[in-house]
# Entry
Amino acid sequence: MYDVVIIGAGITGTMLCRKLSQYRLKIAVLEKANDIAEGATMANSAVIHVGYDPEDGTNKAELNVKGALQYEQLCKDLHCARKVTGAYIAACGPEEEASLDVLAARADARGIPYRDLSREEALKEEPNLSENVTRVLDFYTTAVVYPWEVANACMEVACQNGAELHLNAPCTAITKEDGCWRITTPAGDFATKYVVNAAGVHAEEIHNMIGKAEWQATPRRGEYYVLDQDVQPIRHIIFPVPSKEKGKGVLAIPTVYGNTLIGPNSDFLDDPDDNGTSDAGLAYVRANISKTLNNIPLNRSIRTFAGIRPTTTSPDFIIEEVAGAPHFIDAVSIESPGLASSPAIADRIIEILSQTLPLEQNPDAVMMRKKPVVLAELSAEERNALIRENPAYGKIICRCEQISEGEIIDCIRRPCGARTVKGVKKRVRPGMGRCQGGFCEPKVVHILARELGISPLDVVYDAPDSKILQSENRI
Amino acid sequence: MKKVQAIIIGGGSAGLSAAVTLKKNGIEDILVIEKDEEPGGILEQCIHNGFGLHTFKEQLSGPAYAERFIRMAEEQNVRILLNTMVTKLTADRVVEYVNPEEGTVQVQADAVILAVGCYERPRGGINITGTRPAGIYTAGQAQRYLNIDGYMVGKRVFILGSGDIGLIMARRMTLEGAKVVGVAELMPYSNGLPRNMKQCLEDFNIPLYLSHTVTEVFGKDRLEKIEMMEVDENRNPIPGTEQDIDVDTLLLSVGLIPENHLADQAGIKMDPSTKGPFVDDRYMTSVEGIFACGNGLHVHDLVDYVTLQAAKAAEGAVSYLQNGKPQGEPLRIQNGNQVSYCVPSQFYPQDPAEKVTVYFRVRTPLDKGTLVIRSGDKIIRSVKKRKLVPSVMEEALLLKKDMEGLTEPITIEIAEE
# Structure
């Protein structure tokens, strides 16, 4: 019998799981995909919003501010990359400047620091701002992270504290049996006292297994360009002024490792898994980035992708015990600023759980993640000491991102380690660079096969059916 | 810091040719740095025939061609560091590399020759929308899986782009039992060598769709289907021409891009038309003492030219090591009508070489035209040419007497009839 089963290994589920793992509890995370962070957490703007945008009195407003404040320490504890870039909200004309005043007033009330910049002041730091931009608010504590790295690190800590992760375990039914919940999956049945529904775009399906939800999923797709590290047209995140209809609009985001993201658009979808890119979506991104920025070299794109926001008919996050279903907690409609809010969302869920679930601290729990070796961060002496100990750190596999075989092996051998080519890419970045794995993918396939003790023919890109190689050759 | 006379970055066809040439010219203290386990570079996976017609007057496979140079390098006692990645290059020619045996090492070189090769343009560099399943490879990647690792990537294959690697892979995968359904080419003409069009497509009845492109891919986990469309003269897809093709594999042969990360680091000026460094007639880049050759300089059609130009770069390095920079101010060699790029892009009129071969490509296929070499209004030479195609590199020759005393840049152009 589990104390808590969390459905979904996205940022909400993994963040909660890590925090819960400090208590003496039996916890499992059920994930329908073949890795952690495969849904909304994998494909979003990666911004730790500071919390000026959500309206007063909402869960979003409270949890965003509280969550964002936790990230600095969290990323230190988990050894996750985080870069404070600052966020420019770029107003074009008097009407939008009036909206800046509203944001500034909210920021003042919430204790969020910012600078109010004239066009000229802003241009000094961001010369590519378009001629439309008249005034800028700089929320200079805004940061970017690698969301999937954070989710992965959280899950790793939780697993070391005894939590379980079950991949390829989609829930097919949830029933109430002898006062507890029974969750059916192809990976087996899980009996549990508490269920947390953190299933992202699939949250409505999960909820409807115990009764019809009062809200409906309205998944929205966002498409992005990723630009080569060699072109860095911006230093801050550049937002247009947010609007109720269009959300945060098309932004430009400098990522942790020097690529630039341009996007997203916002398209409602019927299929919550339809994360393909589209002509119309990318055209929208191209057309709208020029509102705030000039000279964005979209011809230096190395990839386009789309992510699905787990939006619902509720304008606010829903974090509550479901009425009439005691011990079943929804953590749904976690759209933007869900990533920034996730540490505080976890706290809120734990608060709900604690009303009926005794939480006893586990003195053996370790909340920090063991620091992975990142060669790029080391001095030449440190690197050489490491290479003498383990020569695999001296063999560079990914020439674009300069990732060694040792780092790849580590990410496979760690708890919740990589099992797929995309899993390796998410954890240590070979394939993220300008050649997009053209050179290193065959080598990564080879390393995965060796480390997992399987044939290269059985190495997959991502899902279990995504094989890369089909047969041995004849000649 | 260790010191060495010359470092060659890259142990492929360009690097080996440069190394052998340096040795032959008495430069003894040299070091070749190769990232892979073996020297030879991309030739090792090019097991097809057709290499070496110019250099050795015979047809060799890629590995056999490489082997000849590896043997020459061995005979000359060229020091090659394998499994070694160059991680930094500075303008004052400090090379930092890392390998499993030595760790991170910095070496000061008197001359550096960049022979770093190129990479294939990935899917993200072109506009194909849709899902992101397994089953989409660059042609060279599929070639490596097949010829080095021994695995086929799929059974029903479509190829986008008629570059040479794509054409070679169409034949190779057919011979391995795959069904190659077709090849689409965005341009109204092929981008591969004429002989590859014949031997790789026509001989195997593989259809070539000119002025077509792949616009979208389908399939959640593994590729299931592609959408192909015809394009208009501006290369935009024509609505109504959508055609779905069921395949499990899409190979992309949509362009090679010189690998220029190290050159950028050293502050070397890049030529937007080749995407490699600007070089002078001694193959020296804008940074003194750093030379460039091979596909990292501009993408070649034949390995024979890689060998030849790398040898010239090495001769340039020898001259620099012995005599320093050429005298006087350089003069530009620039692209004229119908010429998409020229290498080298400058020369020294006060210190001219015996002769300079300018390699160039035309923008579009031309049945005939006249190659005109001029300096300002002065025509230095004009030569009638037939069957000019972008996939075949052309040459323009400058003799010492042509260059002496010139004050106006040289323009290479094709006068159309």
